[in-house]
Each structure stands twice: as C-alpha cells, then as structure tokens.
Amino acid sequence: MPNHSSWSRKVFLVFNFIFLAFISLLCLMPIIHILAISFSSGNAAAAGKVTLWPVDFTTAAYDNVFGKPEYLRAFWVSIKRVVLGTSISMLLTIVTAYPLSKDTSQFRLRTWYAWVFVFTILFSGGLVPMYLTVKSLGMLDSIWALVLPGAVPVFNVILLLNFYRNLPKELEESSRIDGASHFTTLWKIYVPLSLPALATTGLFTIVGHWNSWFDGILYMNHPENYPLQSFLQSIIIKNDFRFLKAENVELMIKLSDRTSKAAQIFVAAFPILIVYPFLQRFFIKGIVMGSVKE
Amino acid sequence: MKSSKFLLSVALVLCMALTACGNSNNSEGTKEAEKKPETTQEQGQKEDENQVIEVSTVSPSDPYLKFDEGESFDKNAVYDAYEKDVGVKITNKWVAADDPQFKEKLKMTIASNDLPDFVRVNATQLKELTEADMIMDITDVYDQNATDETKKFLMMDGGMQMKTATFDGKLMGIPSSYNPYQYQYLYVRTDWLKKLNLPEPKTMADLLTIAEAFKTKDPGGSGKAYGIAVSKDPFNKDTGVTGLRAFLNGYHAYENLWMEDGNGGLMNSDIQPQVKDALKALQDMFKKGLIDPEFTVKDADKESELIYNNSIGLVFGASWTPAQLAKGAVVDGKVVQEWGVYPIPSVDSNPTMNQIGLGVDEYYVISKNAKHPEGVIKLLNQYIVTQSHPTEEQKVYEYGKDLKEKGANYWLLNPLRVGRQIDNNGEILPKAIETKDTSILETKDQKTRYERAMKYVDGSDINMWWEYLISGPNGAVSHNPKIQQNKEYLQNKFYGAPTPTMAERQEILTKKRDEVYFKIIMNQVSVDEFDKFVEEWKKLGGDEITKEVNEWYKASK
Amino acid sequence: MIEVSPSFYTEKHCEVKGMSGLTRMFKKEWPLHIMLLPGLIIVLIFSYIPMAGIMMAFQKYMPNKGLFGSPFIGMKNFRLLMEYPDIGQIFFNTIFIAVMKIIAGLIVPITIAILLNELRKEWVKRTFQTLVYLPHFLSWVLLSGILIDILSPSSGILNQVLGLFGIKPIFFLGSNSWFPYVMVLSDVWKEFGFGTIVYLAALTNINPSLYEAAQIDGASRIKQIFHITLPGMMPIIILMLTLSIGNVLNAGFDQIFNMYSPPVYESADIIDTFVYRMGIQQAQFGFATAVGLLKSVVSFILISCSYVLAYRVANYRIF
C-alpha cells in the first residue's frame, strides 16, 4: 500500500515496532531466565545468582534428564497422544461445527444441539464419576482414556462455527445447486477456506493434549504409560516433607535441584515451540476472498 | 457420482464410530489384563498346598528407585524374596510415579470402592473407611499372626501409636510408625560467631544479640543481611527449616497443640498468653530489620537463597536441616560456610519444651474383602525381621539381588514399612563417629549414617558434610539424649481424626490466627490485637471444639 | 420429538406446518443430524453420564454405597459455604479479580492483534506472535518465583526502576491495595498470547476488498480500524466475551494460591483457595462438588443472559 507512506504513518510504524518488540521481550525474559538456570551449576541456581545468563556453565541438568530411559518412553506416549487425540478432535470439531453453523431455517434443531454441547463446558460431575465412567469402559491404562473424554473441544467447535458462518453464502449455495451433498460441501469448500481457523483450533488442541498431565496420573495404572507431562510432574512438583524419614534425606538433596527442574521444563516445552511456527503458515490473510474471485 | 461420494463420507463417519468402538474392543484387552490377577489367584489357590498366598496392594514408585535389568513392580528381587521366605505373593493393582501422585490416585481408589487387599491411608481416611465399613477389624488377625517381635516393635512407645489406630476397642490399621521424638534445633554460622567474637547462643537474649550483630555487622558482606531466616508458612509443622515453631517453643508457646489445662482437661495452645510474648519479640525483631520483610511470600527454598548467599546465618530447623544448608555450605568439594547446632534457647530459666507429633500419620488398612489378611501380617513380621537383624541373605530386601548398596533405593519396594518408634542415634552415633568405633552401632540406619559421616571425616566425599553435622559429635542428634532424659518435649494430647466442629471450623480458626500472627510480626497492628483474636477464636467455634476435644479426652482415658 | 427447548430459540420452528412439512424437513436435514452423532455420543458418555456426580453436592458420599445409595443431607454443604464468616469478602475478592481479568483479557489481546496486523514484515509479525505466546507454557508455581524476584521491594527490578522516579519501594505482593492488580496484570501478561491468536485468525476473515474501497475513499488508517477491522472482528469478540463472562467466579486458583499470604487474605482470598483450605480439613467430596455446582449455575445464568441479549439486540446467535 504505497499511497500511505505519509510522515505520520512512518512514525506510527516505528513506534508500533518498538512497542511490540518491548512486549515480546517481556514475554521472552522468563524463558531465557529458565534456560539460564538450566545451564547453571546447582549452587549458583540455589543461591539465586542466575538472572539471564548461566553462572558456572554446565550441561549436567540435561544429562540428568536425557539419562533417564523413562524419558523417551514418556515422550513417545505423548507423541501418540497428540497425533491420535488431535486427529480425532479435529475431525469431530470440523463435522460438529458444520451443522451448528447452519441457520435455523436450514437446520431447525441447531440451537437445541448447540446448547447440548455448551452445557458440557458449564456443568461437570467432578473427578470421581468421571473416573468411574472411564474405568467402567475398561479404558484405564489405555491411550483412549487420554484421548476420548475430551474428544469434542466445545470451545473450538464454537470458534469454528463462527468462522464457518462468516464464509460467503454464495459458495455454499452454488455448491449445493451443483448437487453436492453436505459432506462434499464441508470437505471441498468449508475446510479449505477455514484453514486459519483450523490452524488456530488445531494449535489449541495440540497444546492442550501436550500440556495436560493430571488425566495421565488419574487413568494410567502404570507409570510406563504416562505421557511426558505426567512423568515430569513427579520430578517438578515440590517435595512433600511431611513424611520425610531418615532414608529420604539423601533423596531430598537431589530433588530440590532447581537446575534439573528448569531443564525439564524446557525439554517439555521445546517440541511445541517447534510446531507453532509451522502452523503459522496457515494464518494467511485474505485466503478466503482470494478463492471467491476465482 | 454423488452417491458414491456420499457413501465415502458415511464410511468415514463409520470409521470414526469404529475408532470410538475400537476402544471398547481394546477395553476387552484391558479387561482381560485385569482378569489376569484372578487367574493367578486361582493358581495361588492351587499352590495353597505350597502355602503361597496372594495379597494385592497399590504402590508409589519414586524417581530415585532404579530397577535392575529386567525387574519391575510386577517382578523384582524384593517381591520374590517375600514369596520365597514367607509364602506371600505381592501384586499391585496400580503403581503411581511418586508419593503425591499416589495420594491423588488413592482418593479415586477409595471413592470408587476399589480397595486392594491392603493399602496405606492417612488418619482421616482411616476414620472414613472405618465408618463406611470398608476395612477389616484386624484385632484377631494381628493377635494371632503377629510375632512377639512385631508386637514388641510396635509397642516401643508404650502403645500410643497403636491406640490411635483403635476405634471402640477394635484395631482397624497398622500404624506406619516412625520415631515421634523429632526435635528442632538452632543452626548458627559458627565462622561468623568467631569473626565477630560472639558467644554461643544459650538464651533467647543471646539469640537476639547474635541476630542483631549478624544484621548490623554483615559478616557475610552481602550488603543485605538479616538476623534470622523465616519463610512463608512458619507455623506449619511441615516447614522443617526456616520455621518459627521452635522460636515459639523457646517462649513456652506452641502451635495448635492440645495441652493439659491444669484442671484435668485440655486447652488449645494457639490462644495462650505465651504466644503473645513470642509475637511481641518477633515484632521487635521485625522493627529492627532482623527479619526479611518479604518472608510472607517466600517458601523455604526461596528464603534459603539468603542463607546460601551469606545474608543470613541463623535458622531454626529439624535434624535434617544440614541437608538443606549443604547446598550453600559445600561448593566444589569445599566447605565454605561453617555451621553449628544448638538446642532451642529458652526465654527464662525453664528449659524449652520441644513440640513434637505422635510419630504416626498413616496406617496400613486391610480391605473387608481381603481373602488372606494373615498374609499382610506376615509381610509386616518379615519386614521387621529384615530391618532389625538382617542376615547377609536378607540384604536383598534392602539392596536387591546384588545385596550391596548402589544407590538404587530398593528398600522402597517393601510394600509395608514401619519404622522404629524410638531411636538411640543420639547416644550412639556421635560417640561412634568420634571414636571411629563401629562395634557400638546397632541399627541399619546408624550404620548407613556412620558410613556417610566417615566419608566426610576421611575426606573421601566432602559433600557428606551434612551427615556429619547431623550425626557427628556436637551434631544435631547429639543434643537428643539430654532432651530425652529431662523429658523436654511436649506431645499433642489429641490425636486421630478431626472432631465434627473441627472439620467445619478449623480452617477459619487457622486463617484468622495466621492473619493476626503475621500482622503482629510485620508490625501492621499492635500486639494487643492478639487479645481480640482470642475472643474471636472462641466465638468462631474454638469453644465448641474445646468442648468436643475434652469429651473425646474423657472417653479415651 | 423434542419439546424441552426454552421458548426463545423455538420461534422459527413454528413455521413448520403439518406432518408432511416435518417429514420433508427431516428428509432434507438428516445428513446434518448424522454429522452431529459422533460428537453427541462422546459428550453423552463423557459429560452427561458423569454429571450424575452432581448429586454428591447433596450427599454424604459413601464409596461402598455409591452415588445412588449414599444418604442425602440436603443443603448442608451450601449452608456450610454460606455461613462461612468471611464469605462476603471472599465473593467480593473473587468477582473483583475475575471481572478485571475478563475486561483486561479482552482489551489487551484485541489491541495487540490489531497492532501486530499493522506490521509490514511477515517474519517480524510471526516472531512477535510466537514470543507473546511463550508465557502460556509456564506454570504458576514457576512464574510465582520469578514474579517474587521482579516485584521484590528490596532487590526487584520494578522497584529499582520506580526508584529512579523517586518512588519509594512498594511491596506489591504484600499490600492489600496492590495485590489484586498484580494478579490481573500478571495473568493478562501470561495469557494474552492465547487471545491474540484467536483475534489474528479473526482478522484473516475480513474481506480485503473493504480496505481497498476505504483507501480509495481516502479513509485514514485509524478510521479503517474502527469502521472495518473492529466491526469485522465483532462476532468473535462477542463470542469470547460471552464465554469469559462465565468465568466470573473463577479468579485463578493456581496463580493466587502460589502468591498469596495471610497479610493479604482480605484482598486475595477467593472461593477456590478457600475450598482448597477446607479440603485439607475434611476430605469430603460433597463440599467441593457443591461449590462447583454453584459456580456452574452462575455461569449458566450469565451465559444464557448474554446469549439472549445478543440475539434480541443484534439478532446474532453467539453459538
């Protein structure tokens, strides 16, 4: 847009850049701090000497994390969970959002159905009945216990149906006139046109699956089946001193080691940080309109 | 064309439905896996002639438990040893990665009425399970199957801990006992005392002098020195280091303790006038800048930063405190901070009474549906044998099949563990370490500690400095014999699950107490607010609780 | 077949006249029903069946008797909550912190999304967008330690900066007048990256030809933002607002629990921290379930109201 290279516009662009750079830096600082701790010696970290640069540089903490054979196994469970969970959730999100995005004139019960779904994010029976349900389905200790209970992410469905509704109506109409079924319209027109929204909901689903740890602890009866975040919990959370007996003292010294905790946090977050920029490719402006003109 | 596409889509949806159902197929698999124990149980019954019985439990693993090649919670040297030696096969219904997770999962296991044959629960759960009639009255099973050694072992404290597991004369659980005589001590930087030419702390006045000198003269040269280390939850019994319970004790005040009121009843320590004196002293210290004003938001680890970086040289803590101090005191195999341990000083000529607990907060209970409760008692008998006088062969219970220490922590695999209710580490260890006399060492714990301390003494592992400060001459436990002899300790007279009003009102009482205590210490309100708090405490349910506790006290006498 | 639906979303159904119309409609609509089926099965099994657990709020739950055999104790759990001496203060704190978080959590991400959208270089935009999402991955246990350092009155960087302007050190986490605002600001800082992503996606949905037309008309950049960008994002903004209104009783347990202390109880104690402390005293499931139910009912009422309002006023269905 060359016609807007006025003086005030340039000033705005510079300030905007500086402002956003400052905000981004604020968000980056804690990560750098944790990274610095993870590469510092235990003594320096415990004494709070580390700020943004490692003190007494060492990779001992990472050797410790990667030295555990359980780490790779848990990592693999997490990968399986994310792939399986995200595919099922995305598929369900796409097909559930489509009918709900219709007008009442096209789909009379849509509002009723929408509330059936929304109700589930408002009311919950709590952990115990949830556990009993999963248990009675025989899913304890299986990957399905991590994937199916949250397989319909209602927030994402609502988000996506709002995007669907903003798609140009003519597209759907012309496709329907051509005799395409609802399914064809959904796959051939809606899905390709809502890529930015799908990338957004996909990201949330991936992050959600990757980060959740409590269900792993709850539903898995053997630590071998833990996903990564559940596995890391047993090391990261604070040690419970209440039942400390003489034998445990030696363990305690190792457990409150800040550097391994920092390393583990980083190791756990790293894979997601790689996925994110990849997904960003789909946040392309104007993709919708581009295809209308065809 | 159109219909084929449509069929395709239907197939897709069906596929998804199938994936959803696939899990139910899968569940068959899991169900079969669940059935397995039953079949093995049948085998177990077949083997009954060979006297092998099976008991199920649930276990916490531990990040520092390292299995030998090919071993796991399903099959390992310790379980095999139990099966071989006492004919009890141990199975796990589930395993959690560590103790906090074990507790989360245990809640679910109880709530879904799916108890294994035996399990470790806390005092509140013990009462709930007893009320819900889900666990077995084990009075007779224990009586018939426990060996004399076991019975003696669990009665070393005079029967107090067993009493806490008894309801209406019925024994409902085996206390997961440990030594209740766990005192707190005062830890001081002795190199600073020397540098500033200060006396050792014998009285509270000495403590104040030292704290002030440490603050004003800043011997560590950090530029932001304080007198004493205090962290965010200082009155909680779980705060083992950087707490203030010991300080209260020095003023003959105690944290939420039920003590004799002199008229044959019980009273709560939180509202006694001695607390006011202690708070007044703390407020004075705060005004002088001896206490880190940010202590309210710092946990023990955070506050310890100030200890590690030479800002603070005075801290109260349990006997294991040196393990915490070691992170700042030993750097690159060199001791850079010198610490001394002293008994809690007293404000007057009366000795300080150490506030201690009961030494039991968990119990092993046996499910009502257990087929072989006697198997559980057999495990208990065997554990006590292997702990008290293990043969060379029985070291497998401690170290696994190689019978030697290699840091694998195999002792964690023993499914039912009880500890000695009394230890004489204080009499034995300092003497043994000083004279290098191994012949007087009695228990396994003493031998382990002796070996660790000697590594520091002979210079082979300076990191073991902390064990020397705990167990060595003039170490923490060396003060125990005197405390023990003169009975300078005070035990809570109320035990067991909370009374009805306690369950509903203890939270608000603790909240109000903490608010007032903290505000007085931080000089936000006058110390006289304490008197208002006492009135409020009584009104908010304190009086009601006192009544209930006294009824309980009369009934339990 | 289904008559449960409240009147406000059934008006249009009345247009259907007679059996033949109904059958015709079903003939036309059945693929849409089929599409919803898998999702419905999932929520039926994993949300609606477990909802039976709500009964625990009115029960003394006994594990061996189960949900359907445990004795009912009426409203005892709710009475316990309502008779709590500090209940007014706790509700006030919760709503005060939550409402400020809702408002700030709406304005900040929208602003950042619009500003990001103004950046010219695509890679700069992407980098910034990635960076602002980072704090979302850190837990409050960890961040509380970092915040204590940053906000420390003796050594914290913030107070040092304020000191340059002659402002005396402030103990942000220990002062009742500052604590709630610190919670709001730090929460917005941690989570605004999430909202920014949603709004950026919403921006892609705006027709570029609208901007072209505006430019030809000579509309200024600011005008374009207010007349094209914001209205274009409005459906998503209203949606996000409605959903966040349901959180009016959730002030953020993990965050506050890791940073509060007795001296700031009067401004920091919220429903969830209170329930947590009660849970240490009594291991009953009933009390926590009762409080959860209360929160759900409040959310349900608020979300329903905003739904009706949006429909009545703007003739727009949020979902």
UniProtKB/TrEMBL annotation, chain A:
<dbReference type="GO" id="GO:0005886">
    <property type="term" value="C:plasma membrane"/>
</dbReference>
<feature type="transmembrane region" description="Helical">
    <location>
        <begin position="185"/>
        <end position="210"/>
    </location>
</feature>
<feature type="domain" description="ABC transmembrane type-1">
    <location>
        <begin position="75"/>
        <end position="276"/>
    </location>
</feature>
<dbReference type="Pfam" id="PF00528">
    <property type="entry name" value="BPD_transp_1"/>
</dbReference>
<feature type="transmembrane region" description="Helical">
    <location>
        <begin position="12"/>
        <end position="36"/>
    </location>
</feature>
<comment type="similarity">
    <text>Belongs to the binding-protein-dependent transport system permease family.</text>
</comment>
<dbReference type="GO" id="GO:0055085">
    <property type="term" value="P:transmembrane transport"/>
</dbReference>
<dbReference type="InterPro" id="IPR035906">
    <property type="entry name" value="MetI-like_sf"/>
</dbReference>
<keyword id="KW-0472">Membrane</keyword>
<feature type="transmembrane region" description="Helical">
    <location>
        <begin position="82"/>
        <end position="100"/>
    </location>
</feature>
<feature type="transmembrane region" description="Helical">
    <location>
        <begin position="112"/>
        <end position="131"/>
    </location>
</feature>
<dbReference type="InterPro" id="IPR000515">
    <property type="entry name" value="MetI-like"/>
</dbReference>
<feature type="transmembrane region" description="Helical">
    <location>
        <begin position="262"/>
        <end position="279"/>
    </location>
</feature>
<keyword id="KW-1133">Transmembrane helix</keyword>
<keyword id="KW-0812">Transmembrane</keyword>
<keyword id="KW-0813">Transport</keyword>
<keyword id="KW-1003">Cell membrane</keyword>
<protein>
    <submittedName>
        <fullName>Carbohydrate ABC transporter permease</fullName>
    </submittedName>
</protein>
<feature type="transmembrane region" description="Helical">
    <location>
        <begin position="143"/>
        <end position="164"/>
    </location>
</feature>
Automatic annotation (TrEMBL), chain B:
<keyword id="KW-0564">Palmitate</keyword>
<feature type="signal peptide">
    <location>
        <begin position="1"/>
        <end position="22"/>
    </location>
</feature>
<keyword id="KW-1003">Cell membrane</keyword>
<feature type="compositionally biased region" description="Basic and acidic residues">
    <location>
        <begin position="29"/>
        <end position="49"/>
    </location>
</feature>
<feature type="region of interest" description="Disordered">
    <location>
        <begin position="24"/>
        <end position="50"/>
    </location>
</feature>
<dbReference type="Pfam" id="PF13416">
    <property type="entry name" value="SBP_bac_8"/>
</dbReference>
<keyword id="KW-0449">Lipoprotein</keyword>
<keyword id="KW-0472">Membrane</keyword>
<protein>
    <submittedName>
        <fullName>Extracellular solute-binding protein</fullName>
    </submittedName>
</protein>
<dbReference type="InterPro" id="IPR006059">
    <property type="entry name" value="SBP"/>
</dbReference>
<dbReference type="InterPro" id="IPR050490">
    <property type="entry name" value="Bact_solute-bd_prot1"/>
</dbReference>
<keyword id="KW-0732">Signal</keyword>
